[in-house]
Design a protein that fits this description.
single chain; 284 residues; alpha/beta; Frizzled cysteine-rich domain; OB fold (Dihydrolipoamide Acetyltransferase, E2P); 6-stranded mixed β-sheet; two-stranded antiparallel ribbon; 11 helices; 19% strand; elongated; developmental protein; Frizzled/SFRP; Wnt-protein binding; Frizzled_dom
Amino acid sequence: MLAAQTFAFAASCLLGLTRGLDIGLSTKCVVIPKELGMCHDVGYSEMRLPNLMGHTSLAEVISKAADWSHLLQTGCHPFARTFVCSLFAPVCLDTFIQPCRSVCLAVRRSCAPVLACHGHSWPASLDCERIPAGEDMCLAPLSKEEEYIYKEFPKPTCQGCPAVEDAFSYTAVLEAFCHSNFALKAKLVKRKADSGGPEYGIEGQVEFINQGLLLPYDTRNLIQQWLLINESCAQRMTRSNRSIVYIMVGDVKQGKVFISRLYHWQRRDSQLILATRKWRHHKC
């Protein structure tokens, strides 16, 4: 699977960090290229070459950084993009500015489980303890307030793929709604990504049946990230090239969003339609 290969390469490419960068090398400032879109709007427009990964040309930077785009799209941590860009496109100052250790630890804590979901561990070469602990001369120190806010924000998580329910009564669906925190209807699509492989996403808006703890968050984006993290499940849910509508039922536990039941929404499915209508006045 393309994304699995991407995660594998992303993990392995960090091995270059252990080799380090010979600061005695001549460095230069260059404008961050448009092809390195993930590092635009990070607070600066010029980067140093060679970078902290030891890449010596823009072509090499663009090629290697592209393998991280899938991980960043999962939204595994709000500072993940800043962290990755500080390595691939370090800010152009008189000296190299490393990412702060607090950022490295926070990103590792949140993004390592995403790598694990795709069968890869956080590379031992990227040991956060090797980054100086001082927060005065590093990029984007993470405040306790920012870390607290992120921890409180519900996040999709790696999980087993729930089976699509195929035989049920409307009363059974209502019972499932009662025992879950949220239920929503979303149209899933499979597209061709720029890399040539498949890409899974949400078409249109998410329609709530039961908002639960997902209100007032950006639920569409949460489900999009859930599909990216649980790509094997997304693949099973979108076997054809046609868009498919699902009712997704789940829970929010300790800040983690889990999908527990899937119902394939079809207009001819009277039981599912009846359940969604009766839910408006149903008492559990």
